[in-house]
Amino acid sequence: MSNLDFSEILSIRRLGKGIEAIKRANLATKRLDGWFFVQEIKMKKLKELMKSRREYSKSQIQAELLSEVVKKLPLKIRTGEVFAGTEDDAFSRTYALINPNFEVETFEGYCDVMAVYNDITPNKRKGLTKKRIDVVRNFWADHEYAKQLSEVYSSTGLETKEVAYFVEQVTGHTICDFRPALGDGVKNIIEKAKEKKKINENDFEKSRFYDAVITSLNATIILAERYSKIAEEMASKYKGIRKKELQLIARTCRKVPEYGAENLYEALQSFTLLWMVMNIEQAPNPYAFSVGNIDRILQPFYMRKKISKELSVELVRHFLTLFNVGDRNWAISQNLMVGGRDEKGNDLNCDMTEIVLDAFFESNSPQPNLSVKLHNNTPESLYKSISRFFFTIGHSSPSLFNDDKMFFVLKSKGIKDEDLKDYGIGGCQEPLIMGK
Asked: Partner of 92 for a Cys bridge, out of 33, 119, 189, 412, CB 3.0 to 4.6 A?
């Protein structure tokens, strides 16, 4: 297997061609069935747990279901991809804020928890029969979660049916802090969870919670191992540069996210797998998961092994394809931010700020949403960088946020000074604190 450094394997030209191949594959994606397989795998595992004599907490059940999904969900690495992982399997075909099937006259909000099953149709090639679909649908329709939601929606009557307001399913709407996992690896976090479990071994609920944490984190390692094996098997069938690219994926997935990343490529691969697991855990259709300040998250890894700006831009462009779901790169309310200041007014722009902006400008895809933080000490160079978006036809981003005002508002809501710089936007315009 090749042990060449990633910068010796990945070329700017091939990365650009790879992105075009990914776009073509997305355009050809007329079905999204992965979420159904996720639900089916969870159904079978939940039935097994229900028959077990062991008592599980809700967090343990959720962790066991997640672990089962990453073990059995069909996986692949598509032509052109240099990172393993996808969020396509978390979303159904009609989940989008911009949906060609949307009609004002028939829209009744997002109040039918089982409506997602209207998206799945029988497919002989995939073995999807009407009976198979109905079995899964009926099982989850009888689940406590669906019943409780239906009761809430029934109590609102015509008001939600006519979309006077929403009572939304509370999934997503968070910004996870992946920095500890990217820097130290999930194995380090697992060890800390084991220590806390030991300290709380006499507290039944806490002990079971840390069990769930350990199981969930191990799921990311299992997923990485599966992708590593897939990449190895694919590499054996290729020659030349694609063989080396697949070997790089295999080698990297054996390292991250179990252990800490040491360069930009490893950090992006680790983030992709962590993101995939987080989305799958709340499938189908997790609402408004967002990244936060991706420039600050990636900067330490960019600095550990400096590579050309051009190569960095292409790597980030590949990373951005992760958020392009389906044939329309649907609007799925996921947001990335750059720029900003700290609680003392110091500017936090960095090398990766410009690199991320370049990647967004060149790719110009509707997803993910791009937001830029501005403040009194924002350098002129950042204003120049974002001005091209506003004066080039066909660009709909970025959104702009005034940190000076945002900090004032967040402080009035009780946010601690040290957390202010880590605010991010979940979905459209929802301020959240990363990791809190």
From this structure: 119
